[in-house]
Design a protein that fits this description.
Hypothetical protein af1432; mainly alpha; 336 residues
Length: 336
């Protein structure tokens, strides 16, 4: 009997766009493996990411608001799920490889630091000025997950994770879709959260941007997604229509000026950075107190790299608990 995955591969050949990356053309994995009879390689990557411990930790990592008590603010996990949903919609509409886009989207932030980009800046200060969450995400799936064995993902998923942000583009259109989906997701859900927090009012957003992109959350997402689909259909590139693309970048710049760098949401950024630097320096001095995986990797990767791996993998609340345990004295209760 033919394997189920063979049916999936044949379906891709028959139904996907000539511009899609077909799973059968993957450059494969670094380590030998036994193919799965029920899943294609990109479906398998998706499942490996979802079951990873680092993926589960995303539920307790900051998107914009530090360790929010109110449950409706986004976390790095809910951001990842929104990116995945948007990427799948675009890939499906363009007849590209939805499984590949989904796997990249689910893994794109898997190595993000605690406290969002404040944590990223802390690692640049105490470890390496060139530290980036996207390179750390690749390191997580290659070397840190699965007790140091890594997830052994395909080249195309790893490439998409590495190039989901910044100037460089992924080697597949599906990877480029995730770059657009990431931006569409965070621009819109960060507006939603900022309005919920009272930092912004919908009326604060410049009227020309509202006229172009829409006044409501759903309307803006739909208009941006539709623009990518319209501008990219039957093309070998992923892009937005010029007017929508320009307005999207202006809205992003507006958020940087009024939410990401100059608002009450960022009031504790310096505290978070200082806390992570103190934790980092503590484990530089006492590395034997880190979990066994990170101690074991010191000989191969060097002490600073392994301390960075440990601290960057912390959740917000675990970092705060660690700081409290290491640096905040507890009162002496004595004997009763």
């Amino acid at each position: 009997m033919s394997r189920i995955c063979d049916m999936f591969l044949e379906r891709e050949t028959l139904t996907l766009s000539p511009h899609a990356f077909l799973t059968k053309n993957t450059r494969g994995r670094e380590h030998p493996y036994t193919p799965c009879p029920n899943r294609t390689e990109f479906q398998r990557d998706r499942d490996r990411i979802i079951h990873a411990k680092a993926f589960r930790r995303l539920m307790h990592k900051t998107q914009v608001f530090f360790s929010p008590v109110e449950e409706h603010y986004r976390t790095r996990m809910t951001h990842t799920l929104e990116v995945s949903q948007i990427a799948r919609i675009i890939a499906r509409a363009l007849r590209l490889n939805e499984d590949l886009a989904e796997a990249i989207a689910l893994g794109h932030d898997i190595g993000h630091t605690p406290f969002g980009h404040a944590g990223e800046e802390a690692m640049r200060k105490c470890f390496d000025p060139n530290f980036s969450h996207f390179e750390q995400s690749l390191r997580v799936v290659d070397y840190l997950e699965n007790d140091g064995e890594g997830l052994n993902l395909t080249y195309e998923v790893r490439d998409g994770i590495l190039h989901h942000t910044g100037e460089h583009m992924a080697s597949t259109l599906e990877g480029v879709i995730v770059k657009f989906a990431d931006r569409i997701a965070y621009i819109n859900h960060d507006i939603d959260d900022a309005c919920r927090a009272g930092i912004l009012s919908p009326a604060d957003i410049p009227k020309p941007l509202l006229d172009t992109l829409g006044r409501g959350h759903s309307e803006r997402i739909n208009r941006m997604v539709s623009s990518v689909i319209t501008a990219s259909t039957d093309r070998d590139t992923i892009q937005m229509e010029p007017e929508i693309g320009q307005a999207t970048m202006e809205l992003r710049a507006y958020l940087y000026a009024h939410v990401y760098t100059n608002s009450s949401a960022k009031a504790d950024d310096e505290k978070a950075k200082d806390m992570l630097v103190l934790i980092f320096n503590y484990f530089l001095k006492y590395p034997e107190q880190m979990p066994a995986l990170f101690v074991r990797n010191i000989e191969r990767d060097g002490l600073p790299r392994c301390v960075c791996d440990y601290v960057a993998g912390m959740t917000d609340r675990f970092a705060m608990d660690t700081y409290r345990d290491l640096f905040i004295p507890t009162g002496w209760r004595g004997c009763r």
